[in-house]
């Protein structure tokens, strides 16, 4: 059954806001109700001539969440919650789900996945281990409610927007959408790249604006598969380098990191959590944990035409 009354948890955040905007873009066409759950109150989110109210909830309190969901008769929850604290993150997602399950109207849940499949990388990427408990709960609920409940994991690979870091276009800041601005693997502004492995593994890249469009379109599917894999492009990192060099008209300084190089780097890291995340991702990448292991199915099920890597680089560096 298609989603009609949708709550986006964490929808005021970076990725979350793009998903809210994707939903608002199709709100009138499909007669949707869209609300945003947030830890603090805020103004409505406006996009494409439509609004979504931002409603404060206490993620530590199931009743607080349930009351809001009940007021709007929510049938679908999309979680984009983030936290560096495992206990907070795990509890918030579990409480979101339990609040939804208390309502007769509720039948769909999407946990805060995105990027790469958390189960593939959790053995090596610490921040992804906190994403696993909700998956086990969702599997159990699906067994208990096989005909009345669906969940899906949305995966989109690397956000292509990071390729725009440092561009000097007049409105260059718009290239990042609502994401934080920093380079990841590639720094086109310095004509450099730090590549895990030999750069020959196929990798998914998706612009964050297109992630919002894909997720919004998926809410209008009659059924959800367990995995909804999307892609703006599928390229090796070496192919991205060649495109970047072609568009920028300059040779890049590229450093390749072997597994041994990465482990040596990790042994010298500070206590900075994000620094560890960066190099843990590199280790997972060279170990094959980030390999594409399922078909890119969502692209075939919805009518979204994402921006490819070359088109994106040409837009901001051409």
TrEMBL record:
It comes from the Eukaryota. InterPro entries: NAD(P)-bd_dom_sf (IPR036291), NmrA-like (IPR008030), NmrA/Isoflavone_reductase-like (IPR051609). Keywords: NADP, Oxidoreductase. One of its GO terms (molecular function) is oxidoreductase activity. The keyword Nucleus does not apply. Belongs to the NmrA-type oxidoreductase family. Isoflavone reductase subfamily. This is NmrA-like domain-containing protein.
């Amino acid at each position: 059954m298609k989603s009609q009354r949708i709550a986006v948890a964490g929808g005021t955040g970076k990725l979350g806001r793009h998903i809210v905007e994707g939903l608002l873009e199709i709100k009138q066409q499909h007669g949707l109700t869209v609300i945003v759950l947030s830890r603090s109150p805020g103004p409505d989110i406006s996009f494409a001539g439509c609004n979504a109210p931002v409603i404060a909830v206490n993620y530590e309190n199931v009743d607080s969440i349930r009351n809001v969901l009940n007021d709007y008769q929510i049938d679908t929850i999309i979680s984009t919650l983030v936290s560096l604290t495992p206990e907070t993150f795990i509890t918030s997602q579990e409480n979101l789900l339990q609040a939804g399950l208390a309502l007769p109207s509720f039948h769909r849940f999407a946990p805060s996945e995105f990027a790469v499949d958390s189960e593939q990388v959790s053995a090596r990427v610490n921040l992804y281990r906190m994403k696993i408990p909700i998956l086990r709960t969702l599997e159990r609920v699906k067994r208990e409610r096989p005909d009345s409940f669906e969940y899906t994991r949305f995966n989109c690979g690397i956000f292509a927007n990071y390729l725009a870091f440092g561009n000097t276009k007049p409105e260059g800041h718009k290239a990042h959408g609502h994401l934080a601005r920093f380079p990841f693997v590639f720094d086109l502004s310095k004509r450099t790249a730090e590549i895990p492995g030999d750069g020959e593994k196929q990798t998914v890249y998706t612009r964050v604006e297109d992630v919002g469009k894909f997720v919004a379109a998926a809410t209008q599917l009659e059924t959800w598969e367990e995995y909804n894999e999307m892609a703006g492009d599928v390229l090796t990192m070496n192919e991205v380098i060649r495109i970047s060099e072609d568009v920028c008209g300059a040779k890049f300084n590229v450093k390749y990191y072997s597994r041994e190089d990465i482990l040596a780097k990790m042994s010298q890291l500070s206590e900075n959590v994000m620094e560890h995340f960066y190099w843990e991702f590199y280790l997972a990448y060279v170990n094959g944990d980030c390999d594409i292991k399922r078909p890119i199915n969502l692209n075939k099920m919805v009518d979204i035409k994402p921006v490819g890597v070359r088109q994106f680089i040409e837009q901001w560096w051409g």
